[in-house]
Please model this.
Amino acid sequence: MEIKDVNPEHIKKADIIVGIPSYNEAKNISYPVIQADLGLLKYFNKFSSVIINCDNNSPDNTRDVFLETPTESPKIYLSTPRGIKGKGNNFRNLFNKATQLKAKAIIVIDADLKSITPEWINKLGEPLFLDYDYVAPIYLRHKYDGTITNNIAYPLLRSLYGRRIRQPIGGDFGFSNKLCSKYLNNNSWDYNISNFGIDIWMTNNAITNGSLVCQAFLDAPKVHEPKDPGSQLGTMFIHVIGTIFNLMEKYDHFWLKVKGSKPTAIFGFGLGERVLPPKISVSLEKLYNNFNTGLKEFYSLWENIIEKEHRNRLIDIACRKIENFEIPMELWAKILYDFSLNYHIYLEKRKEILTSLVPLYHGQTLSYARATWEMDAKQAEEYIEKLCFTFEEQKPYLVKRWKKN
Amino acid sequence: MPRILLVDDEENIRLLYAEELRDEGYEVTLASDGYKLLERIETESPDIIILDIKLFAYNGLDLLQEIRRKYYNLPVILCSAFDSYKGDIKSMAADNYVVKSSNLAELKEKIKLALDTFIP
Model:
């Protein structure tokens, strides 16, 4: 089956690409396309550019909405063959197209963005012309938006690989042609990466392959289709965490040597008006119930995954009422390390191991939500900083056990 | 002996900190502001920078961005009398943040932590 490639203006070369991955985003895609076009015209008008929608053959007519959105910049529509879905597959098409077009800089933005401004294109693109290879976003997010990032992806990636990238699965990135080639030639492609694991895979690889990484501060908060951490995000969770755990095996020669963590350069400070991100509601009861149900359902599996002392502490926590629910930071770090290690050991049980981590993630999200309930964004950020530092402090626990196995 | 470049516009702070850090075995050079700071970093090659935020004619957070863009891995610790800058996203480009105190235990600990950090 062939990849669909609609290139109405027969573009054969482009210096800058804005890529927009999508699946069923007909109602949302026009807005980011228009903003991307304005950004390209305002900040990169000396360069040839193209906007590419990398789609999964969306049945909701995303393709026509994209192609009919009026823009000065030319557009290309790419799609995976019928029946092939996955965000990562869309990116793979984008990597190939970017190589064909000999692009110098590639910027990727989410198709459901409602807060993107033309400045985002500049901020994600400009560092790529200053020798950086990978630009990750920093935006103001509500403290309960991005709970996989806050509680797992950021602290784990930071403690493992030593680079502080606040939004490693932010969805809006910039990367250089050099890094694009490395992505294409990387042989770690799998099912998770073909799906929602792609963002963390890109960030993780950018760090481990020695690319120069920076962050861009995008003034406006990320406003997109929000998800309740207690009831959505299940599939994404498996793909993201599965990718992190898989890459831990591939790159253990790297992370076993890492000690502590280092910041990255930040670009994009302007005088833009700071707008508060929209509130995200979180159901504490649902998280509490998911944790307790998961404890009953998965306890026998956890006996093989979680150290006895940690399991006993979890039982103690489960006996508490919701008002007193707390997973100490050090325990959460050790539990995640237990999971990553046993995912590495029990090859045949990987899917079950990841599935059984979901209720613990809900427990940790509840613990985080309770601890930060009265906090403003700055205080919640300090809490996450402490969590990350705890992960770094506890890393020898993982290193010692990993080396034994 | 690790070399520290200490940037602070208050002379008594510079003297106190320099003395204490030298007692810990560090080689310490001093700067009273951000003037030609990048040139000094180039010539002195410090192992770590302790940087005040409210300097007389410079903003330490802006200096930090310049340093970080040029020196990808050079450790920088922000050392300010004010806790409030911790929430400024610009401060994320620093390795660490310490509120000034006559007791330098926290600063010494964070210097050690930053110097011990290793990424292959």
In short: Chain A touches chain B through 25 residues (CB under 8 Å). Residues 377-404 of chain A form the longest helix (28 residues). The first strand of chain A starts at residue 4 and ends at 6. Chain A has 15 helices and nine strands.
